[in-house]
């Protein structure tokens, strides 16, 4: 079997791995990327045409600088590859004043200096007549620099530009083992083995399989698309129905955005602030069937009540995977004690918008550069008591 030698190997070229590959290649590092599927495939976590791109991130005040770095990098990447990768039509967080979407977004915006606009109840009602059943207390936070982004084109562009910068890429190649010792790294595949100084493992829902001991739980979470009851209406076009998260009474929340050129109205459910979904033990065993009742009944009933202008039966749906960490934040940084293994995962359902910024951070952490932002809250070792590393 052929043995290749390089400085860094990136295992898994989804959102996080393709960004790391690009940012390492941009520094002139010798880097090889290995992906078991095609580049930009629909079997992991980074497919389905669009993702919300929020900047005043309710999940943690440390996140806005990472989203801002993604925006900067993807604007550059879009210009280089001749496409719009982030559509900045703004985004809205709605709910009672103390809810996570409202209070969390305001806290993150204040800490990171992100300009947001607070909307009182009447302004919210006037602005979003599509929301059928706003709570009496519901208010809004408008994040004007936010919007939506396009996962498959972003993943493909990151890999393509990395290759132009000299990265070598093996698609359709399963990594069967990552062996890390004080002397170096050996990445095994059925067709080639690679020896390197360092490795970034960014295998998404499969991270716990490649690097055992990390406290990660993959969950099956479908993506859903809907159409207005009145096909002639433009009230659910992106400009009028921008990206949003809406916390409703009873622990149910919605996230979604309106339609545009090449994409439909997209909606998903949250339960108690977490993207709804079914946990499973082994990412290779995720249920890829669509269940016309089990997958649809709950969201249809919720859509009928919340958005009366939409046909509550989705026009299409597609399974996707989120991978939860215990505290809902990503795992980005060194694992083990060799200084050679960096992991990237635990996306917890809100990672895509950060992928560009995380790629830059991963390159810095891998090479021992000073990180451009505080990364301690993402350190995988914060779960040391739960893990074997
Ligand atoms: C329904 C849904 C809605 C979401 N909405 C949003 C949103 O609106 N905004 C947002 O920011 N985020 C959102 N997310 C989260 C976001 O999509 C994820 O955070 C992001 O895609 C995670 O990227 P990743 O690189 O960790 O995983 P992936 O992109 O899945 O990458 C992992 C890669 O590793 C490869 N791999 C696995 N094992 C191996 C192996 N042994 N050898 C080689 N390759 C391997 C896989 O094939 C895959 O390509 C959503 C997720 C879902 C499922």
TrEMBL record:
It comes from the Bacteria. Its EC number is 1.5.3.1. This is Sarcosine oxidase. Residues 7-365 form the FAD dependent oxidoreductase domain. InterPro entries: FAD-dep_OxRdtase (IPR006076), FAD/NAD-bd_sf (IPR036188), MTOX (IPR045170). Its cofactor is FAD. The keyword RNA-binding does not apply. PANTHER family: FAD DEPENDENT OXIDOREDUCTASE DOMAIN-CONTAINING PROTEIN, PEROXISOMAL SARCOSINE OXIDASE. It comes from Kribbella italica. Keywords: FAD, Flavoprotein, Oxidoreductase. GO terms for molecular function: flavin adenine dinucleotide binding; sarcosine oxidase activity.
